[in-house]
Amino acid sequence: MDRARIVVEGEVQGVGYRYYVRKAAWKLGLKGYVENLVDGSVEVVVEGDRRSIEEFIKAINIVKPPINVMKVGVEYQPPTGEFKTFRIKTGTLEEEMVEGFSTGASYFEVMFTKQDQMLAKQDQMLAKQDKMLEKQDQMLVKQDQMIELQKQTLNEVKALRVELRTILDERLRVIEQDVALIKARLGL
Fold first, then answer.
1. Would residue 122 count as lying in a domain?
2. Given the DSSP bridges, would you call strands 63-64 and 67-77 parallel, antiparallel or unpaired?
3. How confident is the model at residue 188, as a pLDDT?
4. Does 61 qualify as catalytic in the annotation?
5. pLDDT value of residue 106
């Protein structure tokens, strides 16, 4: 058994940090408490095996808005065995109400920041989509031009076929007349 007194500094009050600490302690089977200190830091006292305490210290070193742990001070002490579970030491009802509202406001702030980031990304996507639509419009214009050229080419081919047929029909008629004359002279 070991005991550690941990003082955590940073943005750790009014952000729901003590609940994360309690959850981590319960998960690792540690006993002790967490409480807010008047200087804005949070004190944690835990008892359990050294490996679990070390894992716990890593787990509570949270940098995830609105929580921002900046410093974790650890002092190992002899265990007392005084704790039956891990709990949050709370202040007065008024203090805890303020803490709760503050936590809610902090998470709303994070949510609005993320929403603003999401809207900015959406604006970027819409700008790209507009560019794609412009390119698509350009492609459709080119496609229409190609179709018009195909129609012109097709009409020219049809006209050429008609003209060629007329020329060939005329030449064939002349050849047939010449053959008929040759036959007549030969008496065939």
1. no
2. antiparallel
3. 84
4. no
5. 83
For residue 17, pLDDT beyond 90: yes
Sequence-separated (6 or more) residues with CB below 8 Å from residue 62: 17, 20, 68, 69
pLDDT digits (tens, 9 = 90+) for 96-112: 788 888 888 888 888 88
Is residue 149 a part of any domain in this protein?
Answer: no
Residues in Cβ contact with 98 at an 8 Å cutoff, skipping those fewer than 6 apart: 14
163 domain residue, yes or no: no
Q: Which of 3, 18, 51, 68 is catalytic?
A: 18
Distance of alpha carbon 18 from its chain centroid, rounded? 30
How does pLDDT run across 22-61, given as a tens digit for each residue?
999 999 999 999 999 999 999 999 999 999 999 999 999 9
Q: Which residue has the tokens 């890593």?
A: 58
* Domain boundaries, position 77: 2-90
| CATH for 45 | 3.30.70.100
Written as six digits, the tokens of 96 are 């805890």
Is 141 a member of any domain? Answer: no
Q: Count up the domains in the chain and report the number.
A: 1
User: How far apart, in whole angstroms, are the C-alpha atoms of residue 186 and residue 176?
Assistant: 15
**Known catalytic residue at 18:** yes
| CA distance linking residue 63 with residue 65, whole number of Å | 6
Of 3, 36, 155, 185, which one is the catalytic site residue?
Answer: 36
